């Protein structure tokens, strides 16, 4: 059993800079990619950013220059530093991780709501 637990969401003012974190726990042999997706009200879930186990990243155009992803492999934790938040960044942010037990499976967190509003 693998669990991903996110933290760090909440109400943020425009221009704010919160950090989300997500920790994987359970029966984990290794973790390949980790990342964040988000789902805004009335929209489909979309990729925000992904980071591989060797540190390569891929960010959505909408967050380039504003969001930064990092990971601590020893802690099975991924972080999302969000800067210069805009109201359109309001969404539920979901952490995911490709975890190897006997094969790789993609696991998801329960999501954390980030609301950007004054």
| Mean pLDDT reading | 96
Distance between the termini: 40 Å
Question: Which segments are poorly predicted (pLDDT under 50) over 5 or more consecutive residues?
Answer: none
Oligomer: single chain
Q: Main sheet, how many strands, which sense, barrel?
A: 7 strands, mixed
Structural class: mainly beta
What's the β-strand tally? 11
Whole-angstrom Rg = 14 Å
Q: What is the N-to-C succession of helices and strands?
A: EEEEEEEEEEE
Helicity range: under 10%
User: Given the C-alpha coordinates, what overall shape results?
Assistant: globular
Number of helices: 0
| Share in β-strands | over 45%
What does this structure look like?
It is a single chain. This protein is mostly beta strands and 118 residues long. The chain is 0% helix and 58% strand. It is built from no helices and 11 strands. It has strands at 2-7, 10-12, 19-26, 30-39, 46-51, 57-59, 67-72, 77-82, 91-100, 104-108, 112-116. The strands form 2 sheets. Strands 2, 4, 5, 6, 9, 10 and 11 form a 7-stranded mixed sheet that branches. Strands 1-3-8-7 form a 4-stranded antiparallel sheet, with no helix packed on it. A hairpin with a 3-residue loop joins strand 9 and strand 10. The chain is globular. The mean pLDDT is 96.
Short summary:
It contains no helices and eleven strands. The chain has strands spanning 2-7, 10-12, 19-26, 30-39, 46-51, 57-59, 67-72, 77-82, 91-100, 104-108, 112-116.
């Amino acid at each position: 059993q693998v669990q991903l637990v996110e933290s760090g969401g909440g109400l943020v003012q425009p221009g704010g800079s919160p950090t989300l974190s997500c920790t994987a726990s359970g029966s984990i042999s290794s973790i390949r990619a980790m990342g964040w997706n988000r789902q805004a009200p009335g929209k489909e879930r979309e990729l925000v950013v992904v980071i591989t186990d060797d540190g390569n990243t891929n960010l959505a155009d909408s967050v380039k220059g504003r969001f930064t992803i990092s990971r601590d492999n020893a802690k099975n934790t991924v972080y999302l530093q969000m800067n210069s938040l805009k109201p359109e960044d309001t969404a539920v942010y979901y952490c995911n991780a490709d975890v190897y037990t006997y094969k790789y499976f993609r696991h998801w967190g329960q999501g954390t709501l980030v609301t950007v509003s004054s």
